[in-house]
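Pipeline run #58 for the internal structure catalog. This entry was flagged by the ingest filter as a single-chain record with no existing model, so it goes straight to prediction. Upstream metadata was stripped on purpose; only the residue string is passed forward. Reviewer on rotation: M.T. Logging verbosity set to normal.
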Amino acid sequence: MATRLTTPTIRIVEEACLNGWPALRTIVLDGWVLRLAEGYTRRANSVHVLSPGSRHAGEKVAACERIYEAHGLPAVFCLTSMAPSSIGAVLDRRGYDPPEDETCVLYQDLSPAKTRCLDQVDLAEGAPTEEWLETLGRLQDQGRAAREVHRRILDALAVPAVFASVCEEGHIASVAFGAVHDGIVCVNSVATDPAFQRRGLAQRTISAILAWAVDRCGATGACVPVVAANRPAVGLYQGLGFASEAYRYHYRRRSGPSEI
């Protein structure tokens, strides 16, 4: 059954998503958070509007553009369904591209009765193993530079985290990790070797993360961001109990240097 989320809970979910995938550098500007991570992933290299602030949106957009330009990055805004519509209008006037990659953040309530830690799932608390990192890099086809930044992002985690993996035929076949903020675990980096798909491996890694979050951190909720158009992934998470949609977000980009 879908949970009807209150506005305070949605805000905590948003915080969990930010803290579960930290940037390497952040700048706070009148209620907006500018995240920078050398261009690796838009989530860690975009402006997140946490509150409207008091200054004119156009003035702040221009300030954000200057900051990202100084770091050799394109200006990218991550606009949630809670963001004021006036910001989108400002971006339109400044020539930003149309919204891209609409993403939904799915949510579920957690309780000990709903979760169980499955056998044959390896859990590493606090930091991933080298084999976990190497597997994720291979499955996501990361280049050398991307792998290094990815490692530094995980090193920057400041909340409790666990890294789950499942082995098949002698090597890791599926990985994921979860990070807990204020009672909500955010699931990230879910990847399975194509040779071992459709065996329920991703379900096992995620289920183990949820059980860990409840048992070790007292988590009462879980969230996961997923591109709305990725129906197989949405179906996977809904099948694991992520039946509620907390909010949606999309990106608005201004042309500039490409991501890693």
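catalog note: The longest strand covers residues 171-181.
catalog note: The mean pLDDT is 93.
status: ready for reviewer M.T.
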